[in-house]
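Data availability (excerpt). The following record was deposited with the supplementary files.
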Amino acid sequence: MPEHKYSQAIELLAPAKTAAIGRDAILHGADAVYIGGPAFGARDKAGNSIGDIAELVAYAHRFHARIYVTLNTILHDNELEAARKLAYDCYNAGVDALIVQDMGLLELDLPPIDLHASTQCDIRTPEKARFLADAGFSQIVLARELTIQEIAKVRAAVPADTVIEHFVHGALCVAYSGQCNISHAHTGRSANRGDCSQACRLPYTLQDAKGQIVAFEKHLLSVKDNNQSDNLHALIDAGVRSFKIEGRYKEAAYVKNITGHYRLLLDQILNERPELHAASSGKTKLLFTPDPDKTFHRGATDYFAQGRKADIGAFDTPTFVGLELGTVTQVGDKWFEMESNEPLANSDGLNYLHKREVIGLQANVVESRNKVWRIYPNEPLHTLPGFRSGLAINRNRDHAWEQVLARKSAERRIGVSAIFAETIDGFSLTLQDEDGITAPAIVAFDKQPANDPETAEDSVREQLTRFGSSDFVLDMLTIDWTLPWFVPSSLANKLRRDAVEKLEQARIESFTRIPRKTAAEPPATYPEESLTFLANVYNSAARTFYARHGVKLMAAAYEAHQEAGEVPLMITRHCIRYSLSLCPKQAKGVIGVQGQVRAEPMTLVNGSEKLRLEFDCRACEMHVIGKMKKQILKMPPPASVPVTFHPHR
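Predicted structure:
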């Protein structure tokens, strides 16, 4: 399909734990923000009231930015009505779209709100993507594991008006999203219901089929964080139009920094490719230099974007160790010294690695001695295990950096052109913004020639360029008069204020929400006729949906507790054997090794927990096999959820 048939709007989509962080995201260049509502979001501890969301919507729409609410958990029958009411509350608050996992929602009486298919829908194939587009989703969030070539195949399979959304930064779930049940099996906390216990970040010992130890207490299911900074051009060419940053549990500093980072990169591309444009209005001016290494990450990987790589794991630690500063050169009784070219500050957070454990300490007082730094930590040195000369020291909290981001760190303004003109009985000021929206202001005044014609125009320009704390910045001012008139400062200021107020109102009135996409008729046929528990069918409405789309056999979701035996608790494209150079495909053709390496089962051990690993080499996937604990099987189903819906403010 030719490139020009796709949308040319490029959307930078940022996360928000709170409405305040959502405002920061927009200020730092986000074209859209996704945020959790009061319930049913895939991050259950990141909920927000409808009133707060309504205020965020009003702020976003000033810049024609959009707000998406996550309603992307699977739902029990007892929760369907509460979810339906929440959808209406979101719509009435002005929300632009709902991000959805449970297909049962499409069977309910929903408002005409736009629907996006969550990455929890496990969208890996062109066939699945096409089905969701035909079912009524306008935007689909692809699996993070896809290569750029696979993304292009999905793009080619769906209608031109379907927006392809893809994660470009942040934490990675090691399993295909929506295909991980290990948390529920072990703790009763379901990742599909927003309460993942993050078993993938635990340390495991890997044993082979004979019980021999292959790796000891490594975080073998923990992968580095996603960073697609170098692949943005290729992703655009593959058809991605919404670039999503992970992080609805992250604080404001992370959102400011990472949003600003991708805003700069995307703006550079937009300048190079005039056929593309930002999905919202205004230009962001950052008052700091973004640096992704400064905020939480587990190391960087572009995952499978350019094909399978062996170094995607964060096996040593799942925590943020930051950047290496230098090496300890001397240890005193209350201080230590290290050489570093990086400036340090009081209250910096430091750490080092000792016996596979990250040990943290805080710099209480820092003294500079010509690139040698004497550091007095808060912690007594004798309590820090293994602390000695020669240790590599990292910094995972840069106090000076945090102080910069704690202050005003960005401005966002919408460019306007202005025409100041004389009228029959006074003056007018007409503003036109970068979207072509205009607003005139008129004032009656008994015109008199200026006493000082040479400075009259400069005086008018000085008054009319003062847009202050408004959303606008003046790009160009044209003065259209027959002769220099006397224009009092008070009159010019009134004209400007009136014009700005009218332009703000005109922008609000011109903004339109994208309506719900009409599903294909007759209903599209689902790519498969039967569904396993991995389809996450948890309610009667979802069963009705799939039956209406041609599915004949359906197993209940894992959370329904009908799978008592061993099943794949996690399906992942990350392969531990490959990362440890034990893959049969890697050994193929290697003299002395060929035929000796087999994809036999292995076992992950964490305390009393044992998980069998099976390797599907044809699909190049790893399955983590286990079963649900007996006490989890006996847990009752969810009761009717008492959701408090806050009024629109």
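Summary of structural features: The domain at 321-406 is CATH 2.40.10.170 (Thrombin, subunit H).
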